[in-house]
Amino acid sequence: MAPKIEPQPGIMDIALYQGGQSALPGQGDVLKLSSNENHYGFSDKAREAFQKSARTLNRYPGTDHGALRTAIGEIHGIDPDRVICGVGSDEVLQFVAQAYAGPGTEVIHTQHGFAMYPILARAVGATPVAVPEVDRTVDVDAILRACTAKTRIVFLTNPGNPTGTMLPEEEVARLAEGLPPRAILVIDSAYVEFAEGRDGGIALVEARENVVMTRTFSKLYGLGGLRIGWGYGPQTIIDVLNRIRQPFNLSDTQLVTAEAALRDRDFAERCVHENAKWRAWMAGRLNEIGVDCDPSFTNFVLARFENEDEALACDAHLKSQRIIVRHVANYGLPHCLRITVGDESACRRVVHAIAQFKGARVKEAVE
Ligand SMILES: *Cc1c(COP(=O)(O)O)cnc(C)c1O
Fold it and tell me: Ligand 1 centre and the CA of 71: distance in Å?
């Protein structure tokens, strides 16, 4: 018989993930504000650990990530036995999908949620279900209404990407409480370090049996290129996820660099502080020149234009000024540009370019 090679159902429905543009043809000196990377780079201590790890590349890494999990436990005041580390938080999200969803089940994400969620659902043959948001904010009641007996996972990005908005703790707790018995709430807290005073879901994980939180070294810690993330959940769920984790999923280089980055609190705190200052400045100036944005709890702001044409025209103007931001039409926000908060000079440069586009003047004062 002639072979008939076919992938599993769902896989051909996946549209390839689109990353932020990082270069403009034929132009150097580009300001990249399209991928929410850390504008200050990363910790010098992380750099030292990375370089030192080059001496032992012939050795396999440990399989239990013990030192990194211990550091995570210390810094966050949580139980390291209930932490799992992955190749970016993306891999931890993938473990959850693989272990708990499959053909005949449903995976809920929200209208403007992270593009990876429907990809992960389809990859395991599950059906992704998109739930509308209200004014770019997650609607807990709408999610609860969308739940069925087939629901296995609800992915919540909090704070949201690309919206930058954030649900209060009581709302997240109400969501967890209202889920059907077989559903897990996955709180993707990739940006929560920028929302000062919030725990990303730690208390909720500890109070319940159906909540998993994911975190990343890609945003605040500036290690997106190295790919390290982690999850925190009930022991039963973490034990399940560890069964499908490849034993050597993280290299020693990844593990020691992440640990050094996490322990350098000075660098992290400085980045949080600068981000808050320039995020407020940028949002304030944009509002003054007639570009609306919601208060952001992240390291980016979502700039709203009159319509898609104006957003595209502004995007083109920014590109002509060698500035790359993210048009987020594929997140259901065609009239919006997502702009990473950079350092002072980056923020000034992008705001001035948008003001130029709007024909408006920017007030110089920093609040
Ligand atoms: C950037 C981001 C992540 C982090 O992904 P990594 O795989 O850890 O780099 C996760 N979720 C959201 C919503 C993000 O924007």
Answer: 21
Q: What are phi and psi of 211, to 5 degrees?
A: -130, 130
List, by residue range, all CATH 3.40.640.10 domains of the chain: 44-263
Q: With a 6 A CB cut-off, is 160 part of the ligand 1 pocket? A: no
| Beta strands across the sheet bearing 326-327 | 300-304, 336-340, 326-327
Is the distance from the beta carbon of residue 340 to the nearest atom of ligand 1 less than 6 Å? no
**Res. 366 pLDDT band, cuts 50 70 90:** very low
pLDDT of residue 363: 61
Closest-lying ligand 1 atom to the alpha carbon of residue 87: 7
145/150 Cα distance (integer angstroms): 13
The residue with tokens 């810094």 is 75
Residues of CATH 3.90.1150.10 domain(s) within the chain?
Answer: 11-41+266-358
* Among protein residues, the one whose CA lies closest to atom 6 of ligand 1: 88
CA of 218 to the centre of ligand 1 (A): 7
For the stretch 170-206, pLDDT in tens is 999 999 999 999 999 999 999 999 999 999 999 999 9
Highest CATH level, class, for 44-263: alpha beta
pLDDT digits 0-9 by tens, 269-315: 999 999 999 999 999 999 999 999 999 999 999 999 999 999 999 99
Quick count: other Cβ atoms within 10 Å of Cβ 139?
A: 18
- Architecture per CATH, domain 11-41+266-358, reads as Alpha-Beta Complex (3.90)
34 lines ligand 1 (CB under 6 A): no
